């Protein structure tokens, strides 16, 4: 089944990239490996490989191999790019269609990416941030609303953010945060987004790297079951700037109301690492946005994208 029978969803940006549908999967560390990226590209969107906190040259090379030569994008975390010697260079050498670096204020990577003919992309959370990114020469902005899963500034919900940034942006703007259905996709395209950057709704797809219990927890969660927190990054002593907390599924660590002894009950770094290694989601973080309630079963990424795009096209044709 092809993703859309007509070009109802096409935007100038998706056309310029030769995509059949204006969707990009978010570069999700621990979920968006080469298999998911290749599946999203095969479904007509642009698949992205995500290197999160644990990103490394070896991990990127492994996931590029798993993508099997598909046209993909690559996403890095700014402090990981800074820490891991050769990571940015390896990403550029792989000639992705676009390369995103998020969660930083240093845009010194932009010229090297553009000199290689690759689109430079970053996530923004407010209008001043969008201006700074544009002034640094960013080719495509991703406006990420606070509904979104994983790390990001907890500032504005997607629609007010998208509205404000579209008012002044001179580059294509992708919308991110809570998009996981035909309705939400249609809404952001109708508002003028160049495309959608989808995280949570593809994190549990068949091709995702997400471990089994994390997947099950996503299926079981409803849309109220997430919370924004820095607790995991603090315990692990990771250098995330505090303005970028993460939206995760609530669990024993994040629910202070169910644990009055919360501060004393924080897991040690060793306990947390062990929980992450054993996929114990009562303690380990599972990144997920408010769209998590839309995930009802595990299916191939193409099925998620086909359904979402067909429903969005029907709504927009009305
Ligand atoms: C499981 C998961 C992991 C993520 N990891 C990253 C990452 O490594 N790098 C990044 O730029 N964004 C990451 N994000 C955030 C996405 O780029 C995006 O902002 C978010 O998923 C959009 O909202 P949504 O989850 O509601 O679709 C992650 C999101 C999720 C759900």
TrEMBL record:
InterPro entries: Aldolase_TIM (IPR013785), NMO (IPR004136). SUPFAM superfamilies: Inosine monophosphate dehydrogenase (IMPDH) (SSF51412). Keywords: Flavoprotein, FMN, Monooxygenase, Oxidoreductase. GO terms for molecular function: nitronate monooxygenase activity. Pfam families: NMO (PF03060). The keyword Magnesium does not apply. This is Nitronate monooxygenase. It comes from Nocardia neocaledoniensis.
């Amino acid at each position: 089944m092809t993703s859309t029978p007509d070009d109802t969803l096409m935007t100038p940006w998706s056309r310029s990239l030769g995509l059949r549908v204006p969707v990009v999967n978010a570069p999700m560390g621990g979920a968006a490996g080469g298999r998911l990226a290749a599946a999203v590209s095969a479904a007509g969107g642009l698949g992205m490989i995500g290197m999160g906190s644990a990103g490394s040259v070896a991990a990127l090379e492994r996931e590029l191999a798993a993508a099997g030569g598909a046209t993909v994008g690559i996403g890095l975390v700014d402090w990981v790019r800074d820490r891991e010697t050769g990571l940015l260079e390896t990403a550029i050498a792989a000639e992705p269609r676009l390369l995103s670096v998020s969660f930083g204020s240093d845009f010194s990577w932009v010229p090297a990416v553009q000199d290689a003919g690759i689109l430079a992309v970053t996530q923004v959370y407010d209008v001043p941030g969008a201006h700074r990114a544009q002034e640094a020469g960013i080719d495509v902005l991703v406006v990420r609303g606070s509904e979104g899963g994983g790390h990001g500034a907890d500032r504005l919900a997607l629609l007010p953010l998208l509205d404000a940034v579209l008012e002044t942006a001179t580059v294509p703007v992708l919308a991110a945060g809570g998009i996981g259905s035909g309705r939400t996709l249609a809404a952001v395209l109708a508002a003028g987004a160049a495309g959608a950057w989808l995280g949570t709704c593809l994190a549990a797809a068949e091709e995702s790297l997400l471990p089994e219990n994390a997947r099950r927890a996503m299926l079981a969660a409803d849309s109220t079951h997430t919370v924004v927190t820095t607790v995991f990054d603090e315990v692990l002593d990771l250098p995330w700037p505090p303005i970028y907390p993460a939206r995760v599924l609530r669990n024993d660590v994040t629910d202070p109301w169910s644990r009055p002894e919360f501060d004393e009950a924080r897991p040690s770094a060793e306990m947390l690492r062990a929980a992450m290694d054993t996929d114990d989601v009562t303690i380990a973080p599972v990144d997920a946005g408010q769209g998590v309630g839309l995930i009802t079963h595990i299916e191939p990424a193409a099925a998620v994208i086909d359904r979402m795009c067909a429903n969005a096209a029907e709504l927009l044709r009305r």
